Amino acid sequence: MRSQPRALTRHRHSARYWSLFILLLASLSSCATPPRLDDSQLDHDITFFSSYGYQLDTRWHIPFRVWVNETPNTLRELTARGARKLLRNVAEIEELSEPQKERYLWRVRDFVADSKSGQRVFLAFDNDPERELFALRNDEGEFETDFNGVLQGSLSISARRARQLLKEQNSKDNWLSFLASSGEYEGRGRVQLIPATGLSVISDIDDTTKVTGITQGASIVLNNVFFSDYQAAPCMAELYHSLGNEAVFHYVSGAPWQLYEPTTTFLFSEAANFPPGSIHMKNVRTNFLEKDSYLDFWKLAGFSGPATIAQKTDSIERILQHFPDRQLVLIGDSGEHDPEIFADISLRHPEQISSIRIRDVVNAAETQPARLHDMMVISPDGESCS
User: What CA–CA distance (Å, rounded) separates 159 from 344?
Assistant: First the structure.
């Protein structure tokens, strides 16, 4: 693979602040067992991260990631408020307004939420005339959520059932909606059944679809992520919609899964107007009873570049494997590793990658033209999005 851009050094510094922040939240919230609030005060919740389905022979296979959790209790919320001062100082904000405080507490909610292990999760599709309950299990055949409240695996349904459900839900774009429940906890989700042929778009998120400022240092990144209103990258939503109504989208990000709700709420809002699609983010565990949590923090603190490259590459390779006959457009930015990741993937799958488009946030077209060889360059100010 090509050598990494100079922005990687700055990104590692900002990642260290990320790791300190997550470490503080995780260690404080897991060091004691706080008293439970009254059940009427709890927000029972199952988060089913947006996914897709691919067809193999006569069955549809749906990779899923589901997280069972509760709203942070008093101690966990105090932990978040304590970390807020640290982040405010790093973000170089002298005083936070009330809207900034509220925005911060919502965006860190999933870092300090109480993950529920040992939960069996069942899925029921809306308007299912057969009222079938699907018991979810992971790739090892286990039915219960792990220490971090996560259950990740693949659900299989027949092509007949898929056609039936699409018809009953009157789906025009192959999206199916459903309810996930473990008895005490529940939540809603959607999945898109994607045909074997057509156009797919794999897009980065930060500094590609929304302005994050990764290359501008930790203070800018933390301000944009936790305290400021999210801003859509100029003209990028228009570009995505111009690719046609039949195009499907996969959003791949190096940001942690804990930012899924704020990120998708913004991306698919009326204001940002990006096409809906599956989401693929970095796994950062926050339960220190699970030994691999320490590995997550180590990667985030000292080796965020290689960890992000591996995570993004693996996510994209998995999509390519599931859809070998679809044409793919890769869209990212020049601030981090997207040009190198995309170029490497294109070399291995030239028959599947139809084009690569890069939002050039560091003027690489002038200073490092080799990085963007054979790629379509998009101006960060929105002047050339076509």
Answer: 35
**H/E run at residue 86:** helix 74-90
| Paired strand residues for 144 | 120
358/203 Cα distance (integer angstroms): 10
| Angle formed by the axes of helices 292-302 and 7-30, nearest 10° | 150
pLDDT classification of 9: cutoffs 50, 70, 90:
very low
Q: In this structure, how many other beta carbons lie within 10 angstroms of the beta carbon of residue 101?
A: 14
The whole-model pTM stands at 0.87
d(CA 93, CA 88): 5
DSSP string, 112-148: HSEE--S-B-EEEETT-TT-PPEEP-BTTS--B--TT
pLDDT band at residue 308 using 50, 70 and 90 as cut-offs: confident
Q: Residues 6 or more apart from 187 whose CB is under 8 A from it?
A: 45, 46, 47, 48, 179, 180
Query: CA distances (Å), 343 to each of 74, 338, 355, in order?
Result: 48, 8, 10
